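REQUEST FORM: STRUCTURE PREDICTION
Request ID: SP-0412
Submitted by: Lab K.M.
Chain count: 1
Length (residues): 408
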Amino acid sequence: MHKTLVIGDGLDKAVAFGRFTSDISSATGDMIRVAIDLPLSMESLEPNPSSTCSVVSIDTGSKALSVFRESIANSVIYERGWSRSGMPSLSQWLTQDLQPAEPIKPAMKNFILSIAEDAEASITKEDTLQLQNLSQSAIQQQTSDSMLGHLENWAEKSHTELRNQLDAAFSAKNWHKLSWWKLFWRVDDVSMITSEIIERRWLTDAEKRGVYLAGRMDQEGFPDIVQYNLEPPSVPSTEDAVAQDVKGLPIQSPQQPLDLSTDVQEVKPWHSQISISRTSLVQTTIPPLQALAQNLVLRTLSTTSLASALSALLWVSMPTVSVFEAGVIAALGLVYSLRRMQKVWEGARADWQVEVREEGRKTLKFTEDMVRWIVKGSAKKVVESEGVAQRRRARDAVERVREVLRKM
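STATUS: Completed
RESULT:
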């Protein structure tokens, strides 16, 4: 029959059905009716054909049927009770529009029309959702573009800071205190001076601006913690050059990271990468430089002392050798050791400068790429897909169904 009858008991069920019927269209209103079981008065209820709700008394109707089944002589009592129960209005609604008709029955026509209206409502809902997504995508795109603009500004200032600050640091008096000829009385200051350069000159302002940029991103809803591998700065090329020039020199080389490790790395915010790289730079580059300085001083003094001792021994053991001739060996040893010390130490200092600059550029590039990846990855791109064409075809089909029903 393509009709639905909902039975409710009491006023609470009537209110609940009112919430349910708020979404019922005009076509489905003739196909759904609710019957509320309430106590009735003794008077007969007049049926309202246009109403979607009927008040009935199931108990009164059941008693009327029981009396009629006992004896046909109780037909008058049955008629009164059945009329008071409100059942006649339901019977009339159930049999309405069921008369044979061409080409289809009115009830079937209403049923098909209700399906068409439900389909159109679903299409409209999908279109509304698509428009909302497109609107949100436009807002997100504006936010992403703004954040990328802040990122480019941060990167430009950070690279400029790295260049200017390191140029100022390597031209300052403290750095010149580590010249090769001052190394004899400044050898213990290597760690202090190089650590001060990294701690005070190496991307300090960039780190602060990175925190402000992270605050902007957090305000816009971008994450600041992502899973990625933190690679320590590469070992400076100073070690290899010194190891080739100074054979037998005991230089402590930092441990290389293994390809396979059971250590679980803690997830770090992207803006902490500068601090992590700075700490790693201090731990991996300064100790070898300090060890190299101490060993160069010790080796220079040892070579000079050995040449001087050999010169004195030659002068004592060979009376024919004059003091000036014996002093040539000591002078040669002194010049050789000092020249070698100058060459190795100045090369190590130059390599350390290159390493510090390169690690700064790599850290900035890594941080910039990570932020760009976060911003672009968090933006939801909504593209007009095949669903738009499908909904357009469905809407055309619904319109054709309605046109056919209007002609019937």
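NOTES: Residues 106-170 form the longest helix (65 residues).
Reviewed by: T.R.
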